[in-house]
Specification:
Layout (H helix, E strand, L loop, with lengths): L5 E4 L2 E4 L3 H12 L5 E4 L3 H9 L1 H9 L2 E2 L4 H9 L10 H15 L2 E6 L10 H12 L4 E6 L8 H11 L3 E5 L4 H9 L8 E4 L3 H6 L7 H5 L3 H8 L4 H4 L1 H12 L3
Parallel strand pairs: 3-4, 3-8, 5-6, 5-7, 7-8
Antiparallel strand pairs: 1-2
């Protein structure tokens, strides 16, 4: 088993892994029994976990917690334990898709918007785009993310019947992580479940990722703000997060 350090940021654990080490851990997880959870926190999710004890508990019990947000990199430097790099959820998912195709394992895509009169569901569109790039990848099934609580048992049944090995859930945080964590012991084939946020929309072409310049400099948040100024309340979470890290320090 791989060994790596974990840093606590506002008392929330984040694994000190880069893309290569995270993939090594993922491969090991795929070869063991039971459903493990991968969490991809940014500063907003860490802040939420300080107030949502259920979210904090599932992060603490996750199989892997990758440092998705640039705010976590800044925080790690403030704490004197710098992360070597960000491991963004969308890039990590791309590495996972390559692994699944090579090993003959299958994926289930669950979440995002349903079909309408103009297009198929985002999950279906993402699946079709993924198949274009990874022709050998087995997509066990897709389902949109619009459902009621009483539908969850049927959704779990559909995921199990698909025979998929890896589960992508795009319901937004913390709903996606809580869904995987709550039902992890009911999955019969799923080895790893991961909340992927807007990654399905990026694959489906219904949302655009920030240009490469913004990605390289950790400025996706700025690009989103430029495109959607109404997100200013969410954007304010980053400076608030940094201030809290400075105040709390390692205490």
């Amino acid at each position: 088993m791989n060994s790596y350090k974990t840093i606590k940021i506002l008392d929330v654990p984040v694994d000190m892994v880069n893309n290569q080490l995270a993939m090594e851990v993922f491969r090991e997880m795929m070869e063991t029994d039971g459903c493990k959870l991968i969490v991809t926190p940014n500063s907003e999710i860490v802040l939420n976990a300080t107030k949502d004890l259920e979210l904090k508990r599932l992060i603490e019990q996750a199989g892997l917690v990758i440092p998705d947000g640039i705010g976590l990199v800044y925080a790690s430097k403030i704490l004197g334990e710098p992360l070597s790099e960000r491991v963004t959820g969308v890039d990590f998912l791309s590495l996972i898709l390559e692994y699944l195709e090579k090993t003959g394992k299958s994926i289930y895509l669950f979440g995002s918007k349903p079909a309408n009169t103009e297009r198929a569901s985002v999950a279906e569109l993402a699946g079709a785009a993924i198949k274009k790039k990874h022709a050998g990848l087995i997509i066990g099934g897709t389902r949109d993310g619009y459902f009621k609580k009483e539908d969850e048992e049927q959704i779990v049944k559909e995921i199990n019947e698909s025979g998929a090995d890896f589960l992508c859930v795009a319901l937004g945080s913390p709903k996606q992580e809580k869904f995987i964590f709550e039902h992890r012991n009911k999955f019969t084939n799923i080895k790893v479940g991961m909340g992927v946020g807007g990654s399905l929309d990026v694959w489906a072409g219904t949302a655009k990722r920030a240009p490469e310049f913004y990605q390289k400099h950790g400025l996706e948040w700025l690009y989103r703000f430029i495109k959607e100024p109404t997100r200013y309340k969410r954007m304010a979470q980053l400076p608030l997060f940094i201030i809290k890290v400075i105040i709390k320090g390692k205490n």
